[in-house]
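Weekly structure sync, notes
Attendees: PL (lead), two postdocs, one rotation student
Agenda item 3: pending single-chain targets
PL asked that the sequence for the first pending target be pasted directly into the notes so everyone works from the same version. It is reproduced below exactly as submitted, 76 residues in total.
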Amino acid sequence: MSVKLSSKGQLVIPKTIRQRLKLGPDARFHIRLTEEGTIVLDPIQTGALEALWGKYAGADFLTELEAEHQQELSHE
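Predicted structure, written out during the meeting:
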C-alpha cells in the first residue's frame, strides 16, 4: 500500500490501518528514523486522564451540584 506526501508534508494513513489500530482523529505518534532510512510511526497510547483532558473545560459542575443539593434540601 502506498501513500503520497502532500505539499504540506502530510500523509494520510489508510482507513483499513486506522481501523485495525483503532486510531481516531486526534491520535498522536512518536516518529523516528532508523539507521536504514525507514520512517517508523509508533502510536502513543493515552491514559484515561489524558483522554478526558479538556473534555469538560468550561463546565460548571459546582453550580450544578449546589442547585441539585438545594432541591434535595427543599424536598425534605
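Discussion points:
- Residues 15-74 form one domain.
- Residues 64 and 70 are 10 Å apart (CA to CA).
Action: rotation student to compare against the earlier draft before next sync.
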